[in-house]
């Protein structure tokens, strides 16, 4: 990474825009240098969240359909590149990058063409989402870190596009507010799509049951260890006030195709476990709802140790009110 090319003043301005909630009001990409500085820092962190989500999809045995990949609200294009790095550039017929900012589209397209010289990269909107009678073709839609910038009307524009996609992979920050917005979107779409992840089911979201209001569906990705000893990442952390260890995310993956089969009673852990002396409490979700499950050190000593190191498995089969075995999943 070329840290010399980073404009630290721009990073400070972007951080202020993101935090103040003013980022949605106007196009804040003023130059290619803005995008390069973002791409090397904020976007890398977002890329690690995508890596987490894509690894989970592979664990579940999910593979993308062949077709166009559309990165909507692409910014510097990190979501598309994370997807192509994970599944390979042969997994799609073309990459399309779309953003309200022409500068962002140009930047994302340029980076992708440099990285995947054999791939067709198309900046601009899909020709067939303006309902001009053009034949619709299957595509996979990536949406990353846009919800805090969209007005309700702009969300509706996006929601008109979403059902046209065969698959939707949507990653957002792991805050209570944004997670709850994504849950509302899941509820609108779950009759139309199969829910692939993070849920293990397409039933109504258990977070919406009275009594669960304080919870939200969030997860934690891990940044690479090297960044903790890198001076420039420390400078980035100081400038932005971001804790580098913390990578909370919300996500939603939908597919018009049938979901890969999971074992009966499959469930998923949400958020961080609460660890006590001889047991831990994990917020667990499955088709019957969201509630805490106990993992006892005596019954699952290895698992308990893994939890203490933040390395617990999130896909599980419950044993009543207790955490049971790690979910057996398709071998890769
Ligand atoms: C925080 S950035 C995220 C960029 C990229 N998706 C990522 O994950 O790094 C939000 C992006 O959404 C774009 N955006 C905001 N409102 C939009 C709209 N109404 N239509 C299309 N793009 C929009 C912005 O220009 C910006 O590039």
Describe the 3D structure.
- The chain is an alpha/beta fold and 332 residues long.
- Helix 1 (8-20) packs across helix 2.
- Helix content is 32%, strand content 23%.
- Strands 1, 2, 3, 4, 5, 6, 7 and 8 form an eight-stranded mixed sheet that branches. Strands 11-10-9-12-13 form a five-stranded antiparallel sheet, covered by helices on one side.
- It has two domains: 3-255, Rossmann fold (3-Layer(aba) Sandwich), CATH 3.40.50.150; 266-326.
- The protein has helices at 8-20, 32-40, 42-59, 78-87, 102-115, 152-161, 176-189, 231-240, 301-308; strands spanning 68-72, 94-98, 121-123, 139-144, 167-173, 194-197, 219-220, 248-255, 266-275, 279-286, 289-296, 315-319, 322-326.
- The chain has nine helices and 13 strands.
- It starts with 7 loop residues before the first helix and ends in a 6-residue tail after the last strand.
- S-adenosylmethionine binds next to helix 3 and helix 4.
């Amino acid at each position: 990474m070329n840290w010399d090319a980073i404009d630290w003043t721009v990073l400070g301005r972007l951080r202020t825009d993101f935090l103040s909630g003013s980022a949605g009001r106007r196009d804040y990409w003023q130059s290619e240098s803005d995008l390069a500085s973002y791409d090397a820092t904020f976007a890398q962190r977002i890329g690690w969240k995508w890596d987490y989500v894509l690894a989970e999809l592979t664990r579940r045995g999910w593979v993308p359909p062949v077709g166009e990949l559309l990165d909507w609200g692409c910014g510097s294009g990190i979501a598309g590149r994370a997807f192509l790095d994970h599944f390979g550039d042969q997994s799609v017929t073309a990459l399309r990058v779309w953003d309200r900012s022409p500068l962002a589209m140009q930047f994302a397209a340029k980076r992708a063409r440099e990285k995947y010289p054999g791939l067709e990269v198309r900046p601009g909107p899909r020709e067939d989402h303006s309902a001009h009678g053009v034949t619709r073709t299957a595509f996979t839609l990536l949406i990353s870190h846009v919800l805090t910038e969209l007005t309700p009307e702009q969300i509706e524009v996006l929601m008109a596009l979403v059902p046209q996609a065969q698959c939707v992979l949507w990653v957002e920050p792991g805050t209570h507010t944004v997670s709850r917005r994504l849950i509302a979107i899941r509820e609108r779409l779950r009759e139309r799509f199969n829910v692939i992840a993070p849920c293990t089911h397409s039933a109504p979201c258990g977070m919406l049951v009275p009594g669960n209001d304080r919870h939200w569906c969030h997860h934690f990705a891990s940044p690479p260890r090297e960044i903790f000893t890198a001076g420039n990442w420390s400078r980035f952390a100081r400038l932005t006030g971001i804790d580098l260890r913390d990578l909370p995310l919300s996500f939603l993956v939908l597919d018009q195709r049938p979901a890969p089969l999971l074992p009966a009673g499959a469930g998923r852990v949400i958020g961080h476990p609460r660890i006590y002396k001889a047991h831990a409490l994990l917020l667990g979700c499955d088709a019957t709802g969201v509630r805490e499950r106990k993992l006892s050190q005596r019954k699952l000593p290895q698992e308990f140790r893994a939890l203490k190191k933040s390395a617990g498995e999130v896909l599980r089969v419950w044993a009543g009110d207790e955490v049971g075995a790690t979910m057996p999943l398709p071998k890769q």
